[in-house]
Write a structure and sequence with these properties.
The protein is α+β, with helices and mostly antiparallel strands. The chain has 4 helices and 5 strands. Strands 4-3-2-1-5 form a 5-stranded antiparallel beta sheet. The protein starts with a helix and ends with a helix. InterPro entries: DUF4293.
Length: about 160
C-alpha cells in the first residue's frame, strides 16, 4: 500500500540502503605512492595495489546489515494492516541502520591503519545514505504512530 506517506518513506529507505551496497563508503589516497584505498560494502581494497600491499579485507557485515535493513523496510510496508508490528519493525530497522553506520566507521578505522599516512580518509556517499535512511525511518514511525492515534480516536467515537 504505497498510497500512505509512511510507505513512501519506507520505500525510499529501502532504496537508500540498497544503494549502500553499490556505492563507495570510504576512500583514502596516499599522495606519495599514489595508492588509493577504497571501501565498499563488500571489501576494503586498493585500486592499484603495490606488490607489498596487504590483501583486500572483507567488509561483508556492512552489506549484510544494509540488505537486512532494506528487507525489513519492505516487510514493514507489507504490514500496513498491523501498525503495532510496523512500529516494532521500525525499531528493529533503527538498530540495523545504526549498526550499519557503526560497521562503516569500524572498517574505515581499519583502512586508516592499512594506508599509513598522516592524512585522513574521506567518507563517501555510501556512508551518508544510512543517515538519510535513519531520518526516513524516524519520519515513517512518526506517521505510523499518527495513523494509530487516528484509528483509536475513531474507535472511541463509535
Amino acid at each position: 500500500m504505497i498510497q500512505r506517506i509512511q510507505s513512501v518513506f519506507l520505500l525510499l529507505l529501502a532504496l537508500a540502503m540498497l544503494s549502500v551496497l553499490f556505492l563507495p563508503i570510504w576512500s583514502k589516497t596516499d599522495p606519495v605512492s599514489q595508492q588509493t584505498l577504497v571501501m565498499t560494502a563488500t571489501k576494503l581494497s586498493y585500486t592499484s595495489p603495490a606488490p607489498n600491499s596487504p590483501r583486500p579485507t572483507s567488509t561483508w557485515p556492512i552489506a549484510a546489515l544494509a540488505a537486512a535493513s532494506a528487507a525489513i523496510a519492505l516487510l514493514e510496508i507489507s504490514q500496513y494492516r498491523n501498525r503495532f508490528t510496523q512500529l516494532k519493525l521500525g525499531a528493529l530497522n533503527l538498530l540495523l541502520i545504526i549498526s550499519t553506520l557503526g560497521a562503516g566507521f569500524y572498517y574505515s578505522s581499519i583502512g586508516e591503519r592499512m594506508l599509513n599516512v598522516k592524512m585522513l580518509g574521506h567518507f563517501e556517499a555510501g556512508y551518508y545514505l544510512p543517515t538519510l535512511a535513519l531520518l526516513l525511518n524516524l519520519l515513517a514511525s512518526r506517521f505510523i504512530r499518527r495513523d494509530e492515534q487516528l484509528v483509536r480516536s475513531m474507535d472511541r467515537l463509535r
